[in-house]
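> example.struct
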């Protein structure tokens, strides 16, 4: 998979999965705009591609349009978009029958509406480039219920799948592909509660058929495959990356 001289935008790139995806793209020659509301990570990924960072609020449509538009103008193309930004608030996100609806709206704005903002900015740039590919990061949690629900998170990530499918069909004629990855248990900052909790980590790993918790690199490898020309006949679909969890009875 070669991304030499390609231009890519990765959201949620201030750490974890998004940072790893951006770093892998940069290592394979892509010029990458890393977008997040977090502080700029130091150092940024090393080349041969070029990495730059935009610290913006993805719920701000004008800021998103300006950042992606400026990046497109700078490099003269936009080939790839990865929507990896998202929040999972264990302390506030709960069942739909009891969640504070302001929290519901905020999660939807960050996890779903921000992807609408990036897509609206990216599609015209990809059309001008002659095509492109998108990957949106969902979760296996949106495929099932939970005895300890985070309904806003799950609903927003399920809606992201529907959005991806619609984009895939709308813009297939323009050479734009759109796919989703479904991560399973993965050690990222979103799961900071597992840090230093060896017993908890062992328990989670034991629930995974492959016997371990996922790494950001596992998700990045799947993401880069779907972005790449190797997946040129794949669009409107989802790839589960969960060590076999969703295949359990």
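> example.seq
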């Amino acid at each position: 998979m070669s991304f030499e001289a390609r231009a890519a935008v990765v959201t949620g790139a201030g750490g974890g999965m998004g940072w790893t995806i951006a770093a892998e793209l940069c290592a394979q020659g892509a010029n990458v705009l890393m977008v997040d509301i977090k502080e700029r990570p130091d150092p940024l990924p090393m080349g041969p591609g070029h990495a730059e960072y935009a610290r913006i609020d993805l719920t701000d449509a004008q800021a998103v349009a300006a950042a992606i538009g400026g990046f497109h103008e700078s490099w003269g193309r936009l080939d790839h978009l990865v929507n990896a930004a998202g929040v999972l608030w264990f302390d506030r996100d709960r069942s739909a029958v009891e969640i504070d609806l302001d929290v519901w709206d905020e999660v939807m704005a960050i996890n779903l509406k921000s992807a609408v903002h990036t897509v609206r900015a990216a599609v015209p740039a990809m059309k001008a480039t002659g095509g492109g590919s998108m990957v949106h990061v969902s979760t296996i949690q949106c495929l099932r219920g939970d005895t300890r629900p985070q309904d806003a998170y799950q609903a927003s990530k399920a809606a992201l799948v529907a959005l991806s499918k619609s984009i895939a069909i709308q813009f297939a004629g323009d050479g734009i592909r759109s796919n989703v990855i479904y991560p399973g248990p993965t050690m990222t900052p979103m799961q900071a509660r597992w840090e230093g909790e060896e017993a908890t980590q062992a328990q989670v790993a034991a629930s995974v058929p492959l016997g371990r918790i996922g790494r950001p690199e596992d998700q990045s490898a799947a993401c880069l495959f779907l972005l790449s020309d190797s997946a040129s006949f794949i669009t409107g679909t989802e790839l589960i990356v969960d060590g076999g969890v969703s295949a359990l009875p």
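> remarks
The longest strand covers residues 176-183.
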